[in-house]
């Protein structure tokens, strides 16, 4: 594949990341405390940003139906609980998920392009994307070719993202960097810059299949890339940390970091998502605790 020099950003101009500075800023931000009504508001906001996800080889129609029901009815016994932002499934289950959440305002996201490895030929990746969109996907979560990126073949990765974006049509594109395989903060910054210039609507940390997945330091690097891209272009790009975010406490730390780095405008599911399969229940338990003074048993909440 080839691309014009005017399209591909000059990644040599991507700033080097001060690892010590990133770690220190994360440490300061994680010490922030949110109390009472502000905490309840933040917990509900976090709920509304979740992409409720099932991405296993054993996924079945019954499992997806159960997840979609939970997405619509997180806790009918608690007042004013929002629904999640989206449900995320494999392309073959998109049509079913779309039917199950119809009329709820919940989007259907599909992983594509040879998720999670990305080790598929481009024509198959594009067919995978078009199939998912044809089945009704509102959002596509693609994975970049990490091997090409780490080999310095940035043109290939750029063109791949651009062509997948075209194949998405009206669907939004989330580009998964798989930061756990990129080794350095500098690589994470370059991959973030590359993805945004190639047409990503969101940049996303991880597939959830590689460790480490989402971390606060990596997320800060990506948020700063989004901030700089916005200053340079005026275009707001979304962010999705995914994998390993399983407690309300950690989710609130991610929201504090978001607010302090990108500001109030990004505190919306349109520009920020949390990729998680277990987080919702812990947030619901925390909301019940804030309202009633006691924790409810996990037995009160669906496990799927």
State the gist of this model.
By secondary structure, the protein is an alpha/beta fold. The chain has a single domain (34-292), classed as Alpha-Beta Barrel (TIM Barrel), CATH 3.20.20.70.
Secondary structure class reads alpha/beta
Q: For the report, how would you describe the main beta sheet?
A: 8 strands, parallel
Element order, helices and strands? HHEHEHEHEHHEHEHEHEH
Please tell me the total number of domains.
1
By DSSP (H or I, 4+ residues per run), the number of helices equals: 11
Tell me the CATH superfamily.
Aldolase class I
Shape: globular
Q: Using DSSP, what is the number of strands?
A: 8
Measure the end-to-end span.
42 Å
Under CATH, the topology can be stated as TIM Barrel
CATH secondary-structure class? Alpha Beta
CATH architecture: Alpha-Beta Barrel
Strand content: 5-15%
Biggest sheet strand order reads 7-6-5-4-3-2-1-8
State the assembly state of the protein chains: single chain
Average pLDDT reading: 93
* Uncertain regions spanning at least 5 consecutive residues: 1-6
Q: How helical, in percent, are the residues?
A: 40-55%
Annotate the secondary structure layout.
Blueprint: H1 19-29, H2 36-48, E1 50-53, H3 61-72, E2 86-89, H4 94-100, E3 107-112, H5 122-134, E4 139-143, H6 146-150, H7 154-168, E5 172-176, H8 185-198, E6 202-204, H9 216-233, E7 238-240, H10 248-262, E8 274-276, H11 279-292
Parallel strand pairs: 1-2, 1-8, 2-3, 3-4, 4-5, 5-6, 6-7
Helix pairs in contact: 2-11, 5-7, 7-8, 8-9, 9-10
């Amino acid at each position: 594949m080839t691309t014009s020099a005017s399209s591909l950003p000059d990644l040599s101009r991507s700033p080097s990341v001060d690892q010590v500075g990133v770690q220190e800023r994360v440490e300061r931000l994680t010490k922030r405390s949110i109390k009472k009504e502000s905490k309840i508001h933040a917990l509900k906001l976090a709920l509304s940003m979740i992409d409720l996800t099932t991405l296993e080889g054993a996924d079945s129609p019954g499992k997806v139906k159960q997840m979609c029901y939970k997405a619509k009815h997180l806790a009918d016994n608690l007042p004013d609980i929002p629904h999640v932002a989206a449900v995320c499934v494999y392309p073959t289950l998109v049509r079913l998920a779309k039917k199950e959440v119809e009329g709820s305002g919940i989007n259907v996201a599909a992983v594509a392009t040879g998720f999670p490895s990305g080790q598929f030929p481009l024509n198959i990746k594009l067919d995978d994307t078009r199939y998912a969109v044809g089945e009704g996907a509102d959002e596509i979560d693609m994975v970049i070719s990490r091997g090409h990126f780490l080999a310095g073949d940035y043109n290939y990765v750029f063109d791949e993202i651009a062509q997948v974006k075209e194949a998405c049509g009206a669907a939004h594109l989330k580009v998964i960097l798989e930061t756990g395989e990129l080794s350095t903060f500098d690589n994470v910054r370059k991959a973030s810059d590359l993805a945004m210039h190639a047409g990503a609507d969101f940049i996303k940390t991880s597939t959830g299949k590689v460790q480490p997945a989402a971390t606060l330091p990596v997320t800060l690097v990506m948020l700063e890339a989004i901030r700089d891209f916005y200053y340079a272009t005026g275009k707001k790009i979304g962010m999705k940390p995914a994998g390993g975010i399983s407690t309300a406490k950690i989710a609130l730390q991610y929201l504090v970091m978001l607010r302090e780095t990108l500001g109030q405008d990004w505190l919306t599911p349109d520009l920020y998502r949390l990729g998680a399969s277990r987080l919702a229940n812990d947030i619901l338990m925390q909301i019940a605790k804030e309202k009633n003074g006691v924790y409810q048993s996990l037995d009160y909440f669906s496990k799927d």
